[in-house]
Amino acid sequence: MNNLDSSYDVVGIGNAIVDVISHENEEFLLRHDLVKNSMSLVDEQTALAIYNDMRPAIQTSGGSAANTMAGIASLGASTGYIGKVRNDQLGELFVHDIEAAGVDHLVAPASTGLPTARSMVLVTPDGARTMNTFLGASSTLYTEDIDTEKVATSNFLYCEGYIWDIETTKNTIRLAMSIAKEANRKVSFTLSDTFCVERHHKEWLELVAGPIDVLFGNEAEYLTLSGCNSIEDAVKWVSGQVEIACITEAHNGSTVVTEGQTIDIEAYPVEKVVDSTGAGDLYAAGFLYGLTKQYDFETCGRIGSLAAAEVITQTGARPQSSLAEIVSTTLDL
Amino acid sequence: MNNLDSSYDVVGIGNAIVDVISHENEEFLLRHDLVKNSMSLVDEQTALAIYNDMRPAIQTSGGSAANTMAGIASLGASTGYIGKVRNDQLGELFVHDIEAAGVDHLVAPASTGLPTARSMVLVTPDGARTMNTFLGASSTLYTEDIDTEKVATSNFLYCEGYIWDIETTKNTIRLAMSIAKEANRKVSFTLSDTFCVERHHKEWLELVAGPIDVLFGNEAEYLTLSGCNSIEDAVKWVSGQVEIACITEAHNGSTVVTEGQTIDIEAYPVEKVVDSTGAGDLYAAGFLYGLTKQYDFETCGRIGSLAAAEVITQTGARPQSSLAEIVSTTLDL
To answer: Whose CA is closest to B163, among B132, B189, B186?
Structure first.
């Protein structure tokens, strides 16, 4: 890794999404046949049917990798973001928010085609979030959307699993990963959701055996990916695949697997989970930030846990307070 | 008043606005030459300049009279709302939110012309809100936008001062007021902001001497309207003008002036003011709701205070919890 002459500490790739958040009861999930804590892709019509049944909502920028980049920026590192919006009102607010968070937005909005992506985020009284995403403009990334020079000169590339869907976009991401690897940069990836892992199992095994250096996911996602029956076996399996694997498990903390070593990290206690949206995204933000600072892995994990704890005590998936301040007052770095 | 065969308990008229809310420091207000706690009308370009300098924001439906209607619906009465959006993304979310709040939206979105109105709401650490509003589609209401039958058969008409701006719109509102009066309904009005009172002083004195039965405003607004030097003199003056005048003064509570009688209502104590946006709107909601239930004026004022106290402990100007439940557990009605 070369920290000199780098464009960014981290460049992220993901679906550029506006979150439409409302608090709903469990009945709402049953009525629409939704799986709690999961993300479902929906077409515009289904999105509308769900929206029409939702209570008054708040709109705020989201998108998994975008949340992670906003988190890294809030921690104090430099970030760029590759994610496509349409040139419509929701697109304008997405671009405003990512730039206002201190992240450079690296893709011009599309002037034709589908509208900006939105995700109906249903937060139940237990703080769990159930997401229904209409991908719209965000689903298609072309190779010309990748600023190859910026990717080649940034220390980390980070990609969310959610965006792995359309062939064109997959090839664009493969290109970005190969540019990063050829330039001797690190490639990181998050498994996003078990349904994504199931859907793209074979291709993701290739990515994990290939370009990916740093992998994020929760226990269920690692079990699905590895095909193992126990998390212990999954840990053994993944340690042969990637340089660093982070396995998160909500309030039970996380495990960092690296060089045959396994480090358990406790979750930071929170008084009340208001909205768990963004917990995984912010864990990745904290961990990657730690790596850019070349902290030891335990410290990286602790920063991840702290950032995740902060974001689940508020509504919305991006930190509303300065994570740099929270880290400096909480951790002894 | 005829509670039988009525369309709604209250029909509101106002600017249909999406609030774009961020937390900013005092320096931000200085940098943009903004008067704290006030609302300024801005053109699209100025709105953009302010927006570009704002931190990541949340978008949520607002509009003074719309907030009041949402509050009345949350209290359990029936409401309709006359306020115009454009058929764009922000317009869609406004209409979703007002309907999801249980309020009937009574005006079709415009299919041409300016975009849906938005207000940049800057919340400073003291909880004060400073608003910069681009009125867009909401500023022009035509007489054909008024459902005359619904206005004539609803018990109260409520109009915000903010929307009093363009001649066409003023004439539309005058028409709505005259329809209500001819049908023996009550007309209520809020003074909205001292700058509005200054700007439309002569016309509003005519409205107050004419169709208005119930008037809302804060001390500064009543002083400006009456031209009096003391609030005591303003109280004397207004008691000869309208049937009921409510004078709010933030944490000092409110005064209800009626039939030569003056009733002081205490503010409900709140632990911390998060965002004072909507306090006046929700006071009016509570008071009007009380009137529709034919409670005594002190009770009406207490419901107003309680609704206002609830809304200032959250970000955004519409109640996120059921006001009906809060009232039933707090007040002995």
So the answer is: B189
